[in-house]
Amino acid sequence: MECTQCGRPASRYTIAADGKEWEAVLCPECYSALMAGLQAGGRRCPVCGMTFGEYRRTGLVGCAECYRFFRRELLPSVERIQGGTVHTGRTPSADVGENYELLLERSRLRGRLEQSLRRGDDAEAERLSEQIRALNEAIRGVRS
């Protein structure tokens, strides 16, 4: 069995809270985190009153404020499910412009450049800078 939260090897647990009982398939770490939240009484969203334990049980947040209030707890799940925490939106239709893919690639490269600079990887940063310069030339060429 795999943990429903993180995908690691898991066991089936019967959990009782708020007068309700349900079964969950969790790894020991996720089970401990859930129980810690339930035992602490669980923080409640100031707008809708939802606890993080309720989110873990249902997979649904109660309102938009829940995303801000439970940000620290939600980020790992959001990253795992969506592959990141930056909203990139939908891809525009093909008639938006020829250079959309180039602009998108430049944005991705800039993010990687920022990461390499933070790590202090000068060689990687230089390589990415060259690629960004080449993309800028290509974008200018498309616009002409």
Residues in helix, %: 40-55%
Separate helix tally: 6
Strand order of the largest sheet: 1-2
Separation of termini? 57 Å
Beta-strand content: 5-15%
Task: Tell me about this structure.
There is one protein chain. The chain has helices at 28-39, 52-58, 64-69, 71-82, 100-119, 122-143, and strands spanning 11-17, 20-26. It is mostly helical. Strands 1-2 form a two-stranded antiparallel sheet. β1 (11-17) and β2 (20-26) form a beta hairpin. α5 (100-119) packs antiparallel against α6 (122-143). The protein is elongated and about 65 Å long. The model has no long low-confidence stretch (mean pLDDT 80).
List the helices and strands and how they pair.
Elements: E1 11-17, E2 20-26, H1 28-39, H2 52-58, H3 64-69, H4 71-82, H5 100-119, H6 122-143
Antiparallel strand pairs: 1-2
Notable traits:
144 residues; mainly alpha; two-stranded antiparallel sheet
Short précis:
The protein has 144 residues and is mainly α. It has helices spanning 28-39, 52-58, 64-69, 71-82, 100-119, 122-143, and strands at 11-17, 20-26. α5 runs antiparallel to α6 (122-143).
